[in-house]
Design goal:
Oligomer: single chain
Membrane topology: Multi-pass membrane protein
Mean pLDDT: 81
Helix content: 55-70%
Organism: Turicibacter bilis
Protein name: Energy-coupling factor transporter transmembrane protein EcfT
Number of domains: 2
Order of helices and strands: HHHHEEHHHHH
Subcellular location: Membrane
Structural class: mainly alpha
Largest sheet: 2 strands, antiparallel
Strand content: under 5%
Low-confidence stretches: none
Number of strands: 2
Pfam families: CbiQ
Length: 276
């Protein structure tokens, strides 16, 4: 498992050189567009662009692979749940029904349902890489300063910064506790039965929770001793002003997302319908 799980990776790339404010604005624009659109043409283009942006960021895939695959598992379960609870959702959206396979009971696999869930999957896949890039290329302290610059209270901004820094700490503690428990004979490998492995996992989670609570208490005391929050405003050491490149990226992203939304709603609905 990577030592940089959802943590800031300090390398030099065009994405890293952008300010936290720029990356946050672009991420929000990207996410809103992906959530609103069910136009397959737009979503596929956004998916390809997300891969290009990931390449530009110079982030090694192995540094985020664990989280990426973990999200894909939940995405699979989400697709199964959508089909289980609403097997004809695509039919109601697109207004036609082309049956492929009769499964059991009321469950019929239709072309419309497959197309609907394909679009839904692509929507998630367009956001996941951008979200991971955002976390991997944004310094928590600089991001807190950027949030404060956008009008967010510095108390909230600092809380977000601490949370971003805390993720790799939890991962490191998990690995250390896991190795210590395995040295004591607790087997977590694939050789053990799944039920036994889940039971043994409790020997890791309880110390991890206690360690996390102790760290939270330590941070709270440290902040109180330094009179954190006594003033209405504060300065940030890592604050960076917007540069020309930031403005170009923000304007470019705004225009691009505007075009995507125009294409999405140009036919009067946000669903692209190839069945009519």
């Amino acid at each position: 498992m990577s030592a940089n799980l959802l943590a800031y990776i300090d390398i030099d790339s065009p994405i890293h050189r952008l300010t936290g404010s720029t990356k946050l604005i672009c991420f929000l624009l990207w996410s809103v567009t992906a959530m609103l659109s069910y136009d397959t043409r737009v979503l596929v283009v956004m998916l390809l662009l997300s891969f290009i942006i990931f390449k530009i960021s110079k982030v090694d895939f192995k540094d985020i692979a664990f989280v990426f695959y973990f999200i894909l598992i939940f995405l699979l379960f989400n697709n199964l749940a959508v089909f289980f609870f609403s097997p004809l959702e695509g039919v109601s959206i697109y207004g036609t029904q082309h049956n492929l396979i009769k499964l059991f009971g009321p469950y019929v696999l239709t072309t419309e349902q497959l197309f609907y869930q394909f679009n839904m999957t692509v929507k998630y896949l367009t956001i996941i890489p951008i979200g991971l890039i955002f976390l991997a290329t944004t310094n928590p302290s600089e991001f807190a300063a950027s949030l404060n610059k956008l009008g967010v209270s510095y108390r909230i901004a600092y809380s977000v910064s601490i949370a971003m820094r805390y993720i790799p700490d939890i991962q490191r503690d998990f690995i250390e506790i896991s190795q210590a428990q395995q040295a004591r004979g607790i087997d977590l490998s694939s050789k053990e039965k799944l039920s036994k492995r889940l039971k043994n996992m409790g020997a890791i989670l309880l110390p991890l929770i206690l360690t996390s609570l102790e760290r939270i208490e330590t941070i709270s005391y440290a902040m109180e001793l330094r009179a954190f929050g006594i003033h209405k405003k504060r300065t940030f050491y890592n604050a960076r002003p917007l540069k020309k490149s930031d403005l170009i990226v923000i304007i470019g992203m705004t225009c691009l997302m505007g075009i995507f939304l125009w294409i999405t709603f140009s036919n009067g609905t946000r669903f692209y319908n190839p069945f009519r």
